[in-house]
Design a protein that fits this description.
By secondary structure, the chain is an all-beta fold. It has two helices and 27 strands. It has helices at residues 2-9, 158-161, and strands at 14-21, 29-30, 33-34, 39-47, 49-50, 53-54, 64-67, 70-72, 74-79, 82-86, 93-101, 108-115, 123-132, 153-157, 163-165, 182-184, 193-201, 211-221, 259-261, 278-287, 292-302, 338-347, 356-364, 369-377, 386-388, 401-409, 414-423. A hairpin with a 2-residue loop joins strand 5 (49-50) and strand 6. The longest helix has 8 residues, at 2-9. The chain is elongated.
């Protein structure tokens, strides 16, 4: 026996290792690696000779197997970050939350709002979502059950299209995230994103400095099915829709699919800890002073119009006015003189970048002047504002009105409405 052992020790032994992972019916590669529930089989063959005589090949009776576990990981991003400066009674202010599935299996998510002690609470007006995929998917194999979640461009409102679990009545559940009550998102594949837009309305009657602070938590939940649902030897336990993800057990079971939490950031929400499948961000609203201001001045442009001079903004015969110009000081308002009413509007909100839209401005001229012309200076708008005037040939005293509708003025900009008239 010892001699045989010694001889064997001098032999050249060849061994072939063969890894059979994610092959055939088990193929399930995701953007974040092999899908959870994929059985990985490994076997080998050992060939050898004794005294140049081939011996019986050694092959294990059964392959070595382990099952790929489930990574539970997500990224939660928000735009804009932090608190927004808003005006009292402002409507339609939005936060856009993007949840990315950084795991290797399908996940669903719930959203939870944690209110912080503050001065007021904004009202949630609507919650909408959007998912963009490279191609349509038949998520459950039925072709119909989850049609609202299966296209390449999936959109909807949370209240109507998300799957409701438990007793939560609104899209943002403010109860304990562990109580099972929440609205659950559509199934999200690995490396896929869902963008959720929450629109808020700000109450009226607030004062400068009032604030509304809250934390939003995205919690990983069990979806309707896993990627490898129905795959033989997957070690999967059927999911319970909306159930919070269970913590990883302390001991690995090579035949079972276990949850491995890789999220590492502790967020501001009370229920957001490291390695728990939750992510959170802090948001809110701060009431700021009115950022749009307007002033009006009457400039005497010409004491007496003579020759070809005109009371308008004509660059050759008239009196064009630009932002930053100042009023003449050597002209006098007498009958027949040219007067320019300069209404200057300033958007002082340059730091926060809040554009002013739907600006409606109306000016009724006094009867002592005769309308001549008007011009808008440096307003920002997508189309031409509506300008309504009375006829410029009125002889009898009449009050003329100049109206502007749907003008826009970007943050940090100054615009002006200049109305030209002659003194009667």
């Amino acid at each position: 026996m010892k001699l045989l052992q010694q001889q064997a020790s001098r032999l050249a032994i060849s061994a072939g290792l063969m890894a059979l992972a994610a092959g055939g019916a088990h193929a399930a590669e995701t953007a974040n690696g092999t899908a959870a529930g994929t059985p990985v089989d490994n076997t080998f063959t050992l060939d050898y000779e004794v005294n140049n005589t081939p011996q019986t090949q050694i092959t294990p009776a059964n392959p070595t197997r382990f099952t790929v576990d489930r990574i539970v990981d997500l990224t939660l991003a928000v735009d804009p970050v932090g608190a927004q400066d808003v005006a009292a009674d402002e409507q339609g202010v939005t936060f856009e939350y993007t949840i990315t599935n950084d795991g290797n299996d399908i996940q669903a998510y719930s959203l939870h709002l944690e209110d912080i002690a503050d001065d007021f609470d904004a009202t949630i007006d609507s919650i909408s979502y959007a998912i963009t995929r490279g191609s349509a998917v038949d998520l459950d194999g039925s072709g119909t059950a989850l049609d609202n979640c299966e296209g390449t461009s999936v959109t909807g409102t949370l209240e109507t299209d998300f799957v409701t679990v438990g007793t939560a009545a609104s899209g943002l559940d403010d109860d304990d995230p562990d109580d099972g009550a929440a609205d659950i998102t559509c199934p999200i594949y690995p490396d896929e994103e869902i963008v959720i837009t929450v629109t808020f309305d700000i109450p009226a009657g607030l004062t400068v400095g009032d604030d509304d602070d809250f934390n939003l938590l995205a919690q990983s939940r069990e979806p309707l099915f896993w990627i490898n649902t129905g795959t033989a030897n997957s070690g999967l336990v059927a999911p319970i829709l909306g159930e919070p993800m269970d913590a990883t057990p302390g001991t690995n079971d090579s035949a079972a699919v276990e949850n491995v939490f890789l999220d590492s950031v502790n967020g501001p929400h009370a229920d957001d800890d490291a390695a728990d499948g939750n992510q959170s961000v802090a948001n809110g609203f701060d009431i700021i002073a009115q950022f749009l201001t307007a002033t009006k001045e009457a400039w005497v442009m010409d004491t007496e119009l003579t020759g070809t001079e005109t009371c308008d903004d004509n660059g050759t015969t008239g009196y064009p006015i630009a932002i930053g110009d100042t009023a003449p000081t050597d002209e006098f308002p007498i009958p027949g003189s040219c007067v320019a009413y300069v209404i200057e509007v300033v958007n002082s909100d340059a730091d926060v970048v809040r554009d002013a839209t739907s600006i409606d401005l109306s000016d009724q001229l006094p009867v002592e002047v005769q309308y001549s012309d008007h011009v808008m200076v440096d307003f920002d708008n997508d189309g031409t504002p509506t300008l309504t005037t009375c006829a410029g040939t009125d002889v009898a005293p009449a009050q003329c009105t100049v109206d502007i509708a749907d003008a826009e003025l970007d943050s940090g900009n100054t615009g002006a409405l200049v109305i030209y008239a002659t003194v009667r």
